[in-house]
Amino acid sequence: MNAAPGVYQGAADVIAALMLLLEFGMLRQALVRDQVRLYATQSAMISVLAIVIAADRNLPDLYALAALSAALKVFAVPLVLRRLLGRPAVEETRGVAGSYTLSPASAVLASIVLAAFGFFCFGSLGIHSADVPVLALSLAGAMVFVAFTLMIVRRDVASQAIGFFSLENAISLASLVLAAELPLLIETAFLFDLLLAVVVFGMLIRAHHSRAESLSTADLTRLRG
Amino acid sequence: MLGVILAILVLPLAVAIASFLAPARVAAGITIVSGIACFGLVLALIPHATRGATTYLSYLRADSLSCVFLLATAFLYAAVAVYAAGYLKGRTDRYARRFYLGFNVFAGAMLAAPLMSSLALLWIAIEVTTVVSALLVAIEDTDGAAEASWKYVLIASAGLGLALLATIFAYYAGAQVLGAHSNLAIQPLISVGSRLPKTPVRLAFLLAVLGYGTKVGLVPVHTWLPDAHSEAPTPVSAMLSGALLATSFYAILRFYQIAAATLGSGFPRGTLLVFGIASLLLASLYVFGQRDVKRLLAYSSVEHMGILAIGVSFGAPVALAGVLLHVLAHAAAKGNAFMGAGVFTVTYGTKQMSAMRDGLRLLPWSGPLFLLSIFALSAFPPSGIFRSEFEIVAGGLGHGDYAAAAVLVVVVTIAFIGLATSTTNVLLSPVPAEQAPGEPSAWMVVPVLAGLAVLVLLGVHPPGELTNLITQAAAQLRGAP
User: Which of A147, B16, B282, B311 has its CA 20 to 30 A from that of B276?
Assistant: First the structure.
């Protein structure tokens, strides 16, 4: 009989499950501003998990990482996204709501199938370690696939960008599970890099909107062959 | 040598900032100086790297393999910096300053990537190349550029997400042997390769090939590449094709070294063979029927990345040496081809080849040079590409990979026919045009001449120091420290 999971393993599994649910929420959510809110909440969970791991495994670096991650992903990135999107995000509420390549129900069904595929793929890796919550790793695998689904099925630049940022959250979850002791310098560099990516995504979203007067990617079909 | 490495890292970034603040002419001048200086610094680094790899400040490392890729990037940085001085003639000061800011940061990030001793920092450097070059692709502010840059940043970033996952799995594998506080340094991971757990390493390699392969342009994750190459300003297209794809391939080679040390070379070689053949086949078919000259060259880049992947999959020393020579020769040849194509697009005011005719008469220098560049790119002797592809095929045949070697020869020939047909129409079809012959700028001719000289040098008699460097780098790929 398996022993009951410890605080760290239990917390990691619960947080990973909640993050996956939020990922589905982003996929289903029609409004960009609500997607940004869900992204901020998902990012906050990453910071909570980092604090749990820091306390459980006595890794003081992770407190700093949790603070940096929260400052960047919970506050700065959503703020930058709202600022850069600005009026387009508000004006395009209806347009974005209808931006599915598939119908919303089909998109969710497809993402459930892919999430299950990711879950079992990562679960079958044979990574068994007392330090690694294998269920959380499998859930991170499922999140990766749902994030890709979000980027593929939504035909608006804002949702696609949020899909990419949530993909980064899924990878952060896998990183905390598998590589919690990664040096702070490298983790900080990853976060800085994310900030850079956010700014560039934001600039390109703005450029796209000013040119196409829409957040939709439906017209991005000139370049073929 | 630490000073040289730091200079290579700092100089382009310092020049980027200065370029943004200075007038366009000054920005052009200091970018040329920076490009040539970086090329000189890399040449100075080569003898030290061939004497043995050295790690500096824990996170910087120069060895033979990294120097091969540094050399390709630095040469192209210098050549394209000269070319850009002519290409940007007539552009607004604001455009030129933004261009030089991005161009220098882009070059700096590509030069930094091979100097990183850690897989994590290598990933960060390559991610920086993505975000900066996406902005450079968008700089033309056209509908096509906006579309291409969005596709590029989204697809490449998603690919790099997978590459980051690969890096994390590599860390997990390394931590089982090296301890939890490993900093993902590449060499220690290779050294303990035989003791690493196999499943995470296998997964890390697959994710790295898919993830970095997106940036390399390996089929089926190449879809951003033709769009970005065709819509970017021509100097950026040349850097994307000649240097960025190779830099991303360098990252795959580092994962290849770790995977080969852990799993044996069979699995990583087989994986690269599949991606290589797919890239070669699809790209050579797409070369036919292209109407946009830059798109034509972009598909040729996918083809050449396929050749690199196939060459590594052969695993024979001569094939690996051929691969590394191919990195250098492709940088020169593809840089030349794009720079030549750029002269045509400026002269004719379009990228459509149907509107380009009588190029040999109208462009007395660039016409013949473009023709020679295309022949060099198509592996005509005495080009360096002929020598590198010959070595790759010889390695494949010597190693018993007859089918793959035969496919390579046949498909490369098909691609040559596609390239030659398109370009000879552009150059030789006469039209009763009244336009007087003349070059848009001498700055756009000189670097192409330099590129051709390098291609002949690589094909006829590579310098001894370079041969030594390539031999050692090939040995590294076969497991030497």
Answer: A147
